[in-house]
C-alpha cells in the first residue's frame, strides 16, 4: 500500500480501485449491449418502415401506371374513332358545299358544323407559296398559314396531289388524312383532333375537327382521379407522371400563327401536380431511373416538410416510357422512430440502475481478499522477495495467492541470475558477434563523445571508412562460411595496426565495412595509419591451402576540417572510400568537395545513361590491333563511347562503374556486342583477310555463365560473324573466383572457336599458378606497365616478365597503350609483335576505321 501512496503523490491522481472498477465495467458492458440493441432495433424499425413504404409505393405505381397505360390505349382508340367520324363528317360537308370556296360563307360553315356534330370546319386552299385557311367557323383559323407546320404541311401537299398521305403520323384513308391530337396553333388554349379530306372535286381541303374531346375523356376516365384519391391517403403528399424525355430540359416552345405553346408530346409533366419542386435533383434521378430501369429515391426538406421522393420508371412495348414520382411524408416515419427510441432509452435507464446496484454488491465480496493480496504484492514490488501469503480460499483468489508466492520465490532466483549475466548482456549490446569488434551502436555513441571532447580541447577527430575490394566475389564463390573466416582475419589485422587505447575505436559496421575512429590524430598521422592498414590488408589470405588476394579501399574525413555535422562526417568518409574504390581500390582517399559534387551528379548520370542505352545512343569505337613486324591489321578492340546532350562526352571511367553498380552493365554489354559483331561481319564480307574483334566482358556477365554462353552464340548467329573472329577480354577479378562453372563456360567458348584474353594483366592479385589451369589464349600487358618504360628501357622488368611468362605457357601476348617509338622498339626486341595504342591509332568511329583500312 505504501507504493500505491507514492504513486498517488507522484501522479496526483488516485488509481481506481477494483471495488469501483467492477460496477463500472458491468455498467459499461450493459450500456454497450443496450446501446447495440437500441441501435439494432432503431435501424430494424427504420428498415421495416422503409420496406412498408416501398411496398406502398410499388402498389400505387402499379395502379397509376396501369391507369396511364389504359388512358393512352383508350385515347388511341377514341382518337381512331374520332378520326373516322371526321371522315364521315367530311363526306357530308362535301355534299353540302359548292366546289369553290369563294362561293362559301363562314356562316354556312358554322351552321354546317352544328349539323354534322363537329366543333368547327375550316377550308384550306393553295396560294402561290402556302396553304392557308380561307374559310372557317372558327375566326382564329381564317388567314392561318401552314407552311411552317412540318409534316402537316407535307400531308396537305400530298392530299392536293391526290396521293396517299405517307408522313407516318395520324390515320390515312382514301382521299383522307386525320392528324394526331395536338394543341391548336391558332388557339393554344384548346386541344383538337383534325380531319382533312380532298378528292379533287373541290379547290379546297375540307378540315372538320373536334375540340377538347380527348381532354374531357381523360378528365373523366384518366389517371387524374386516381392520383387525387391516392394523395388523400396519410403520408402521400404528391403523385406526378413525368415525361423523362423533356423534364428538366428547356421547354420546347413552338411559335406559330402569332401564338406560342408546348406540344403534348413535349410537355414535361403529363399528369398530377409538381408542388414539391427540386428540378436539378429530380431531373438527374429521373434520367438515371430511365437508364438503369431501377427505382431511385432521396430524402430532403422541401416546402418546410421532411419528404422522401421516389421515382419509378414505367416501360411500354409500343409507347414512350414515363416516370412516376411519389412524394411521401418522411416526417411520419421520423416521428415514429423517435417515439420508439424514447421508449427504449427509458427502459435502458431502468436496467442500468438495477445492474449498478447488483454490481456494487458483487464487487464487495471479492475486493476484500484482493486488497490483502495487493498489500503483499507491493512488498514484492519493493524487492522484498520470498515472503509467503496466507489466504484460506479454494476459489481463483486462493490459487492466485499460491501463484504470487511462487512468483516471489522465482523472482528472487531470477534477480540473482540477472546480476550474474548483466556483464554478458552489456558486452553483446556493443560488440559484433562474428569478429568481436565494437559495433555500429557503440561507434555512434563514442563518436558523439569524441566530438564533444575535441570541441573542448581543440583537437581533431578522424574517421576511416574501410571496405574490402572484391570481397563479394570471394563470398559468392567460396560461400558465406568461408567469407566469415576471412572477415575474422581482416578484423584481427585491423586490430594489429592500431594501438589499444582510449583514443582509438575500431568497429565493424556490417558486411565487409569497418570504421576506425581516431581522436587527437594529426592529418599526417591519420594518412600514415590508413596507408599502413591498406598495405597490411592486401597481404595474401590463406584459406583451404589456397592463397586469396584481397585489397581494401579507405576513405578519410576529418572533424572539424570537413564538416561539423556528425552524420555528414560519416557520409564524407563513405564518399572518399567510394572514390578510392572507383580509382581501382587498394588506395587511401581523403574527402574533398570535388568528391561530393561528383556524387551529386551520379544519379543524374545514371538516369541519362539509362535513357541513352534504351534509345541506342551509345556508340562503339574501334582501336586497331597491329602486327608491327608485318604491318598487318589483325583486328580491333571494341570500346564504348557516350556523348550526352547534357554532360557532353562522358568518360568510360565515369559511366562504366555506374553501370556496374546499377545493373545497366548487362544491356550496355549486349548493345556493344551486337554493334561490334555486326560491324566486323560487314567489314569481313568485303575483305580477303578477315579482322577479329575484341569485346570486354565484366564480372556481371559471368554471374550466369551458361546463359552468357548461349547469348554469345545467338549474337554471333544473328550477326553472321564466325566465332574464330571474336575475342573476349576478361579481367583478373573474374579469375579470382575460378569456379568450375566459369571455367566450363570459358572452355565452351574456346571449343566453338572464340579466343579468351586476360585484360590489364599484372594489375590484379590473382595467383599466377592459376594461368596454367585456365582456358586462356592471350595475355594483354596493361598500359601502365608499357608507359612506365623509359627511353633507356628502364622500368621494363614487369612487361618483360609477362612476355616470358606468356611464352613459357604457350600463350599469345599483346601490349596496349603503346605511345612512343622506343616502347615499340623495346617490345619488338622482346619478340612481342602485337600492339595497340596511340602510336598506331586512337580509337576510331566506324567511318574513321573504314578510312583507316583504306589507307593501310
Biggest sheet, in brief?
A: 8 strands, mixed, barrel
Distance between the termini: 106 Å
Strand content: 15-25%
Calculate the mean pLDDT score and round it.
83
> What is the CATH H-level superfamily of the domain at 617-855?
EAL domain
Main attributes?
single chain, Beta-Lactamase, alpha+beta, Alpha-Beta Plaits, disordered N terminus, eight-stranded mixed β-barrel, TIM Barrel, 856 residues, flat
Textual characterization of the structure:
- The chain is an alpha+beta fold.
- Among the domains are: 219-330, Beta-Lactamase (2-Layer Sandwich), CATH 3.30.450; 431-591, Reverse transcriptase/Diguanylate cyclase domain (Alpha-Beta Plaits), CATH 3.30.70; 617-855, EAL domain (TIM Barrel), CATH 3.20.20.450.
- The protein is 50% helix and 21% strand.
- The chain is built from 24 helices and 31 strands.
- Strands 23-24-26-27-28-29-30-31 form an 8-stranded mixed beta barrel, surrounded by 5 helices. A 5-stranded antiparallel sheet has the order 2-1-8-6-5.
- A hairpin with a 2-residue loop joins strand 17 and strand 18.
- Helix 2 (18-96) runs antiparallel to helix 8 (330-381) and helix 8 (330-381) packs across helix 9.
- The N and C termini lie far apart (106 Å).
- 30% of the residues are buried.
- Residues 1-13 have low confidence and may be disordered.
Amino acid at each position: 500500500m505504501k507504493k500505491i501512496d507514492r504513486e498517488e503523490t507522484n501522479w496526483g491522481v488516485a488509481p481506481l480501485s477494483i471495488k469501483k472498477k467492477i460496477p463500472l465495467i458491468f455498467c459499461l458492458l450493459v450500456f454497450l449491449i443496450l446501446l447495440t440493441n437500441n441501435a439494432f432495433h432503431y435501424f430494424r424499425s427504420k428498415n421495416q418502415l422503409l420496406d412498408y413504404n416501398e411496398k406502398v409505393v410499388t402498389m400505387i405505381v402499379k395502379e397509376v401506371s396501369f391507369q396511364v397505360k389504359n388512358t393512352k390505349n383508350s385515347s388511341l382508340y377514341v382518337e381512331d374513332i374520332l378520326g373516322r367520324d371526321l371522315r364521315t363528317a367530311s363526306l357530308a360537308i362535301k355534299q353540302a358545299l359548292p366546289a369553290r370556296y369563294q362561293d362559301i360563307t363562314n356562316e354556312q360553315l358554322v351552321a354546317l358544323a352544328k349539323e354534322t356534330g363537329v366543333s368547327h370546319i375550316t377550308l384550306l386552299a393553295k396560294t402561290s407559296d402556302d396553304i392557308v385557311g380561307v374559310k372557317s367557323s372558327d375566326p382564329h383559323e381564317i388567314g392561318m398559314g401552314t407552311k411552317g407546320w412540318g409534316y402537316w404541311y407535307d400531308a396537305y401537299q400530298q392530299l392536293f396531289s391526290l396521293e396517299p398521305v405517307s408522313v407516318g403520323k395520324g390515320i390515312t384513308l382514301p382521299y383522307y388524312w386525320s392528324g394526331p391530337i395536338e394543341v391548336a396553333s391558332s388557339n393554344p388554349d384548346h386541344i383538337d383532333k383534325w380531319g382533312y379530306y380532298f378528292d379533287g372535286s373541290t379547290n379546297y381541303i375540307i378540315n372538320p375537327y373536334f375540340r377538347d374531346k380527348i381532354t374531357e375523356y381523360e378528365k373523366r376516365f384518366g389517371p387524374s382521379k386516381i392520383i387525387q384519391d391516392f394523395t388523400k391517403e396519410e403520408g402521400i403528399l404528391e403523385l406526378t407522371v413525368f415525361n423523362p424525355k423533356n423534364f428538366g430540359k428547356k421547354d420546347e416552345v413552338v411559335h406559330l400563327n402569332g401564338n406560342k405553346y408546348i406540344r403534348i408530346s413535349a410537355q414535361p409533366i403529363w399528369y398530377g401536380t409538381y408542388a414539391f419542386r427540386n428540378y436539378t435533383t429530380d431531373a438527374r434521378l429521373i434520367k438515371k431511373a430511365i437508364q438503369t430501369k431501377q427505382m431511385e429515391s432521396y430524402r430532403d426538406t422541401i416546402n418546410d416538410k421532411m419528404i422522401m421522393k421516389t421515382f419509378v420508371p414505367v416501360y411500354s412495348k409500343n409507347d414512350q416510357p414515363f416516370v412516376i414520382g411519389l412524394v411521401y411524408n418522411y416526417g411520419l416515419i421520423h416521428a415514429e422512430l423517435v417515439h420508439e427510441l424514447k421508449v427504449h432509452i427509458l427502459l435502458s435507464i431502468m436496467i442500468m440502475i438495477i445492474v449498478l446496484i447488483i454490481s456494487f454488491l458483487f464487487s464487495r465480496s471479492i475486493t476484500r481478499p484482493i486488497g490483502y493480496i495487493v498489500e503483499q504484492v507491493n512488498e514484492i514490488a519493493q524487492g522484498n522477495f520470498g515472503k509467503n501469503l496466507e489466504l484460506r480460499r479454494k476459489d481463483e483468489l486462493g490459487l492466485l495467492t499460491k501463484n504470487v508466492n511462487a512468483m516471489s520465490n522465482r523472482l528472487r532466483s531470477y534477480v540473482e541470475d540477472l546480476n550474474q549475466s548483466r556483464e554478458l548482456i552489456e558486452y553483446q549490446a556493443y560488440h559484433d558477434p562474428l569478429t568481436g569488434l565494437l559495433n555500429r551502436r557503440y561507434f555512434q555513441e563514442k563518436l558523439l563523445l569524441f566530438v564533444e571532447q575535441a570541441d573542448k580541447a581543440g583537437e581533431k577527430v578522424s574517421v576511416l571508412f574501410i571496405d574490402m575490394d572484391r570481397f563479394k566475389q570471394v563470398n559468392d564463390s567460396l560461400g558465406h562460411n568461408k567469407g566469415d573466416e576471412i572477415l575474422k582475419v581482416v578484423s584481427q589485422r585491423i586490430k594489429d595496426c592500431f594501438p589499444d587505447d582510449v583514443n582509438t575505436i575500431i568497429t565493424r559496421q556490417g558486411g565487409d565495412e569497418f570504421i576506425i575512429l581516431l581522436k587527437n590524430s594529426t592529418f599526417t598521422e591519420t594518412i600514415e595509419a590508413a596507408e599502413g592498414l591498406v598495405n597490411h590488408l592486401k597481404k595474401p589470405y590463406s584459406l583451404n591451402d589456397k592463397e586469396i588476394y584481397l585489397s581494401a579501399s579507405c576513405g578519410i574525413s576529418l572533424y572539424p576540417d570537413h564538416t561539423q555535422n556528425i552524420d555528414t562526417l560519416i557520409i564524407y568518409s563513405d564518399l572518399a572510400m567510394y572514390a578510392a574504390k572507383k580509382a581501382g581500390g587498394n588506395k587511401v582517399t581523403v574527402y574533398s568537395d570535388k568528391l561530393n559534387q561528383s556524387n551529386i551528379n551520379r544519379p543524374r548520370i545514371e538516369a541519362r545513361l539509362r535513357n541513352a542505352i534504351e534509345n541506342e545512343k551509345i556508340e562503339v569505337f574501334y582501336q586497331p590491333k597491329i602486327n608491327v613486324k608485318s604491318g598487318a591489321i589483325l583486328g580491333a578492340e571494341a570500346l564504348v563511347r557516350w556523348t550526352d546532350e547534357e554532360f557532353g562526352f562522358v568518360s568510360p571511367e565515369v559511366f562504366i562503374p555506374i553501370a556496374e553498380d546499377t545493373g545497366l552493365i548487362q544491356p550496355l554489354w549486349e548493345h556493344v556486342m551486337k554493334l561490334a559483331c555486326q560491324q566486323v561481319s560487314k567489314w569481313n564480307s568485303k575483305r580477303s583477310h578477315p579482322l577479329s574483334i575484341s569485346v570486354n566482358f565484366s564480372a556481371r556477365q559471368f554471374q550466369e555463365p551458361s546463359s552468357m554462353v548461349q547469348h554469345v552464340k545467338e549474337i554471333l548467329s544473328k550477326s553472321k560473324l564466325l566465332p574464330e573472329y571474336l575475342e573476349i577480354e576478361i579481367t583478373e577479378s573474374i579469375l579470382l573466383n575460378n569456379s568450375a562453372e566459369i571455367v566450363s563456360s570459358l572452355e565452351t567458348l574456346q571449343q566453338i572457336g572464340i579466343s579468351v584474353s586476360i585484360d590489364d594483366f599484372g594489375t590484379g592479385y590473382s595467383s599466377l599458378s592459376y594461368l596454367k589451369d585456365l582456358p586462356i589464349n592471350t595475355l594483354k600487358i596493361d598500359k601502365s606497365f608499357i608507359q612506365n618504360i623509359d627511353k633507356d628501357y628502364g622500368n621494363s622488368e614487369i612487361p618483360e616478365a609477362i612476355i616470358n611468362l606468356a611464352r613459357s605457357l604457350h600463350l599469345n601476348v599483346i601490349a596496349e597503350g603503346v605511345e612512343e617509338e622506343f616502347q615499340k622498339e623495346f617490345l619488338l626486341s622482346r619478340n612481342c609483335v602485337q600492339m595497340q595504342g596511340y602510336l598506331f591509332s586512337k580509337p576510331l568511329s566506324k567511318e574513321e576505321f573504314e578510312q583507316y583500312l583504306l589507307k593501310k
